[in-house]
Amino acid sequence: QVQLVESGGGSVQAGGSLRLSCAASGDIFSRYCMGWFRQSPGRGLEWVSHINSGGDRTDYAESVKGRFTISRDNDKNMLYLQMNSLTPEDTGLYYCAAPLATWLCRVLIGDYKYWGQGTQVTVSA
Fold first, then answer.
1. What tens digit of pLDDT does each residue of 82-108 get?
2. How far lies 24's CA from each of 51, 73, 80, 99, in Å?
3. Quick check: 4 and 119 in contact, CB under 8 A?
4. What is the DSSP track for the chain?
5. Low-confidence ranges of the chain (pLDDT < 70)
6. DSSP character string of 35-49
7. What is the structure's pLDDT at 24?
8. Closest CA to 106 of 42, 38, 34
């Protein structure tokens, strides 16, 4: 069982930056691949990035590659998403999520069982 709480969202102008955080409860956080997703009215729920349990492998959606950086601190049970060069298309409700099994680390939304409540990111032009 993993419980997740996101923070760090807000309103910024295009070109700005935000850093999202996700605090995880439970002593097995370090065994899970973790992902970031976002939901917006025009695009629905989409995968943004994920990071393996050890933190040495990451993957990004093409739309955020080169601008976003995912990281984790297993000692603190924390997941992060550094977002730079934000555009209005990045506006959405951002969720962190953990998959239903520790061995899963894919981009499939259906793999993810544990979700936070989300944090809103709004980017104005």
1. 999 999 999 999 999 999 988 899 888
2. 15, 11, 11, 13
3. no
4. --EEEEE--EEEETT--EEEEEEEESTTGGGS-EEEEEEETTTEEEEEEEE-TTSS-EEE-TTTTTTEEEEEETTTTEEEEEE-S--GGG-EEEEEEEESSTT---S-GGGEEEE---EEEEEE-
5. 27
6. EEEEEETTTEEEEEE
7. 95
8. 34
Q: Which two tokens stand for residue 59?
A: 């993957």
Dihedral (CA of 65, 99, 32, 40) sign: positive
Q: What is the pLDDT of residue 43?
A: 86
- Structure token digits, residue 74: 């297993």
Residue 110 neighbours by CB under 8 Å, 6+ apart? none
